[in-house]
Amino acid sequence: xxxxxxxxxxxAKVLFFATSLLVFNPVSAQSGIRLxxxxxxxxxxxxxxxxxxxxxxxxxxxFVATSYLIVHPxxxxxxxxGAIPDTALPSxxxxxxxxxxxxxxxxxxxxxxxxxxxxxxxxxAMSHLHSDHNGNANVFASSQWIVQKADRDMMFSGAEVRVMxxxxxxxxxxxxTLLLDNEDHDVFGDGSVRIISAPGHxxxxxxxxxxxxxxxxxxxxxxxYHFPEEITTERFPTFEFDTEMSGHSxxxxxxxxxxxxxxxxxxxxxxxxxxxxxxxxxxx
Length: 284
Known about the structure:
Strand content: 15-25%
Shape: globular
Strand order of the largest sheet: 4-5-1-2-3-6-7-8
Radius of gyration: 20 Å
CATH class: Alpha Beta
Number of domains: 1
Helix content: 10-25%
Mean pLDDT: 90
CATH superfamily: Ribonuclease Z/Hydroxyacylglutathione hydrolase-like
Oligomer: single chain
Low-confidence stretches: 1-31
């Protein structure tokens, strides 16, 4: 009987260990690509006039903030880093509010729940320099930062830039960096995850094209658009760096969408993200 109990304990430990590997371990080299979505809060109450719309011209006036983890057999890429640093959030798990931004879940805890910490991120990139996309950027300064030169130059220029909080990214100045000069970049060298230059919203704005086995092609559009209504009305935010440049980038990306058949997720669009699976679920 004692032998049977000992054997049962051993089997239980083996089963627990195997289960924990399935739940928490990163995707193995034999697996395909996974994409996790993390909830970085909401941005509420912005005046649509900031984007050259009236309230009755847009379906939804509130925004979401999100970040994405791409897990590839050759490594990991974190795209965007939240609107507010995790260190600003209450330690008791309460809601944090800063102006129009409301956050209740730390980015790092969401990452840890699916088995990843900052030390597991090989590549880090943001669509652009605005503060609602780089709240936790300093945490990823040991990853290789992939950034367009024009954005990096502005970030460390010392100039006051609208919607930019330098304290969010000071550590990136010394981070290992892949500097792109209005260039596209194949992150893992196999065409499955591509950073596409799309300047205009900021001088070095970029988007991400991901090829998933089951879902298909997906374009994470950053702030190329804020509202779906921008696609058909050709309107731009009042704080756009260069609207002519943005217009060319939108034409480029629309052509890319047509060429690849990719689905586009507008980064702040609440209606789009309400339909999506957030971590710990994933797309592949």
